[in-house]
Design a protein that fits this description.
The protein is built from 13 helices and 20 strands. The chain is α/β, with parallel strands linked by helices. It has two domains: 200 residues, 3-Layer(bba) Sandwich (FAD/NAD(P)-binding domain); 113 residues, 2-Layer Sandwich (D-Amino Acid Oxidase, Chain A, domain 2), CATH 3.30.9.30.
């Protein structure tokens, strides 16, 4: 790699048999050269969308290889419809179609409320899938490469020249372009430069344990098999904790997330600034949930060894998604990290990519500033609203038994604005799942 290099000139996008949305717009505008920092879901989707429009795109990531990383996640209709329109084919990816959300008592497993998805393809224009993050990421990686996106691993970005603009790699080399798309996650190194002041992520006081249980172990137990064969997102709500579980890969794996106040746990602590660590033994998890209903106790027992403990971070409002230079944007968790309670982090990154793509159609280096301000103006209110709801759900899920909990349980059964669960109110559900990010 030379001391300074630019992106390669764009080649003609490969012909697609999918929707015409994937074809480059009819325009004589020269393509932009775009540098995407971060090869996560948001970064890859931005790269794919921009490449469809003929832009030359390179993605930089510090990883030396991409493989089996992560756990379960959800692809709701608002992102599924964009993937389908862009010709990102999930047909052969292992997946599970979600029935909806089921909320249960922590102590006896009684159903508090069911919130079925109905037929999301009819109601919202897309399927609601439960998948393994690694599978989804692999599909996006293949699509990006097939579309002509250049993906460079082992390329850690240590700094930026915002005026060039350029990403400066750890070896001192520079990758220049017309636009930088910074999708480097919740611990973004670039965010402060956009805001003009420090804006570190805030520890919520909650941690999560992410566990993958073999589906065959669940199916072999008469008390557990319905959790796999009837694919609801099951959420057990209890004092200072809740547990979410759902099947992925068509039931091959049951994904479980134990979200709990860190102060109630006595296992290995996360160091200052540490985001995750591997827990070698499930003894503390078993003890913490020993008074919960039998299925939760069994899930804790099935966690085994070597599962991940994550610190849950939040972030104050990111006011500036567009850099003052007019040559860079933030995308995904770098601008709006989502607590897992809304299950919308990846979907919001998908919407970011769609809006950025459309905002940049017809843009030139001379008009970039206006284009990226459009991206910020369109995306910021919606993403920020969902961030706020995630914080509210954190409190709602973790109520101790008592009058507040009883009021919550009663409200969860009603299709009214006062329902504490975001998608428990039909108007909000339509606003979230029925949204088309490209329709602006």
């Amino acid at each position: 790699m030379t001391a300074q290099e630019s992106l390669p000139a764009g080649s003609t996008p490969s012909k697609s048999t999918s929707s015409s949305s994937t074809a480059a717009p009819s325009s004589t505008t020269p393509p932009l050269h775009v540098v995407v920092v971060g090869a996560g879901i948001g970064g890859l989707l931005a790269a794919i969308g921009l490449r469809f429009d003929g832009h030359a795109v390179v993605v930089l990531d510090q990883a030396t290889a991409f493989g089996e990383v992560g756990a379960g996640m959800r692809i709701p209709p608002n992102s599924f419809k964009l993937l389908h329109r862009w010709g990102i084919d999930l047909t052969y990816m292992k997946k599970t179609y979600s029935n909806g959300n089921r909320f249960l008592r922590f102590d006896d497993g009684a159903v508090i409320a069911d919130m079925p998805h109905g037929i999301p393809e009819w109601d919202f224009g897309g399927s609601y899938l439960m998948v393994h993050r690694a599978d989804y990421h692999a599909v996006l990686l293949d699509k990006a490469r097939a579309s002509g996106v250049e993906i460079r691993g082992n390329s850690r970005v240590d700094g930026y020249d915002w005026d060039a603009p350029a990403a400066i790699l750890s070896d001192g080399s520079r990758v220049t372009g017309d636009l930088l798309v910074v999708a480097d996650g919740v611990q973004s190194k670039a965010r402060e430069a956009f805001q003009g002041h420090s804006l570190p992520p805030v520890d919520t006081g909650d941690i999560s344990y992410r566990v993958l249980v073999p589906g065959q172990d669940m199916l072999a137990d008469p008390d557990m098999r319905d959790l796999v064969s009837q694919p609801w997102v099951s959420s057990w709500c209890g004092p200072d904790a809740h547990v979410i579980g759902y099947p992925v890969r068509g039931g091959e794996i049951y994904n479980v997330v134990f979200c709990v106040s860190e102060s109630t746990m006595n296992d290995q602590k996360l160091a200052e600034g540490e985001t995750k660590l591997v827990i070698a033994d499930n003894a503390e998890l078993v003890d913490r949930f020993s008074k919960w209903e039998p299925r939760v106790r069994k899930l804790a027992a099935l966690a085994g060894k070597g599962f991940l403990k994550w610190r849950l971070y939040d972030l104050e409002m990111v006011d500036h998604w567009a850099h003052p230079s007019g040559k860079a944007v933030l995308l995904g968790d770098a601008s709006h990290p989502m607590l897992p309670y809304m299950a919308s982090g990846a979907a919001m990154a998908c919407e970011d990519a769609a809006v950025l793509r459309k905002a940049l159609q017809g843009a030139t280096p001379a008009t970039l500033r206006e284009a990226i301000k459009t991206y910020e103006r369109v995306r910021q209110p919606r993403a920020s609203a969902l961030q706020r709801w995630g914080r509210q759900l954190q409190a709602a899920y973790h109520l101790p038994d008592g009058p507040q909990q009883e009021e919550r349980d009663a409200a969860m059964k009603e299709d009214k604005e006062g329902n504490p669960i975001y998608w428990g109110f039909d108007d909000r559900r339509k606003w979230l799942f029925g949204h088309d990010a490209e329709a602006f």
